Amino acid sequence: MGCGSTLPFSEVELGGCPWLLYPVVLLPARSHARMTDRFLSFWFADTDARIYAAFRVAFAVVALLNLVDFIPYRYAFFADTGLVDLRAAHTPGHYGIPHFSLFNVFTSETHVDVIYAISAVAMVLLGAGVFTRAAAFWVWIWHLTITYRSPVATAGWDDVLRVYSFLILISPLGARWPWRMKKLTRAKLDPAPVYGLQLMWLQLMVIYLHSALFKLPSEDWVNGEVLTYYLMSTNARFPSASVAQFAPLLKVMTWCVLAGEILIPFLLLFRKTRLWGALLGISFHLGIFILSRNLGLFCLTMWILYIPLLNPRAVEWIEQRWGRLHRR
Questions:
Q1: For residue range 278-298, what is the model confidence (pLDDT) as tens digits?
Q2: Contact, 298 vs 155, CB < 8 A?
Q3: Alpha carbons 271 and 278: distance in angstroms, whole number
Q4: How far apart are CA 206 and CA 157, in angstroms?
Q5: What DSSP state is assigned to residue 102?
Q6: Res 128 pLDDT > 60
Q7: How high is the pLDDT of residue 92?
Q8: Whether residue 73 sits in one domain with residue 173
Q9: More confident residue, 243 or 175
Q10: pLDDT band (50, 70, 90) for residue 38
Q11: Residue 250 is part of which domain span?
Q12: 135 within a domain of the structure (yes/no)
């Protein structure tokens, strides 16, 4: 007995009542197809390759500045004549696996100088887009090397640079010269898959969440006393004990910092609020730059992490403004 269906299947093929099988077979199949399309679009949709190139150049500049910042202390931190005993550097890490560092093998001051020179050249090549993949690999090795030879010498932004150096290595690298806008129009530049930018976006959210979760158990943060102590310390740009009279205001500001670090990743998560999250994050690190005398590299590192959040329309807008400036 038929079921009056007009679906393009015979009643024999679908047991006489094809419409009964729709919620069981066809609907899940269509939902699965939509989920697959969304997954592939999320990771592998085309995007403007200039975004990758702009981030690659900015990252290379910051990494080179960080390398230069280490130069006066390179022997103390990385050579066998320095402060950190090689036995400590050779201590196994997670799961008993030794940490990798070139300075664990090449230990003399001459070796340190040679590795420094090669790493500096690799960063210049990475920024210039010459032998880019090989340069990206060496820059990743460099960040592993300094982190695991002398962890006491590194700061939070060294960890950020290490993680993002790996993300650059596995991502499309973009065009060589992203600022030559006339040569890099969309018609002349092949698009790139978006997966690298998505990984960088997710990593940025993880950084803020990790930072907030690290602070929450701290009594000084919960009590709102961190900024008061910080502005009286030698880390402040203008340290002064007189800031204690503004303790109530600084307490509120401390709580705002903590709330901001919790809020930023959720703002970045959604496309409609991503711009507000980026503005809040950039402003947050601008405040750190103004109040601190030794966190300039940290602020630069965090600022460039917002470049992967650009979309092709934003790049087109920048290109238009760039063209207008050149016509003036």
A1: 999 999 999 999 999 889 999
A2: yes
A3: 11
A4: 14
A5: G
A6: yes
A7: 67
A8: yes
A9: 243
A10: confident
A11: 195-319
A12: yes
On whether residue 202 sits in a domain, the answer given is yes
In the chain, which ranges are E strands?
46-47, 192-193
Residues 165 and 200 occupy one common structural domain: no
Q: Is residue 17 part of a domain?
A: no
CA neighbor of 119 nearest in space, from 82, 81, 146: 146
From residue 118, alpha-carbon distances to 70, 82, 234, 289, 300 in Å are 15, 21, 35, 30, 23
User: Residues 156, 275: one domain?
Assistant: no
Whether residue 146 has pLDDT greater than 80 = yes
Q: Are residues 161 and 204 in the same domain?
A: no
Q: Helix 49-70 vs helix 109-128: angle between axes, to the nearest 10 degrees?
A: 160
Query: Is residue 19 within a helix (H) or strand (E), and if so which, with residue range?
Result: helix 18-21
Residue 24 has pLDDT above 80, yes or no: no
Rg of the chain taking only CA atoms, in angstroms? 26
The tally of domains found in the chain comes to 2
**What angle is formed at CA 47 by the lines to CA 44 and CA 49, rounded to 5 degrees?**
115
Same domain assignment for residues 164 and 272: no
Q: Are residues 218 and 119 in the same domain?
A: no
pTM score, two decimals? 0.84
Residue 22 above 60 pLDDT?
Answer: no
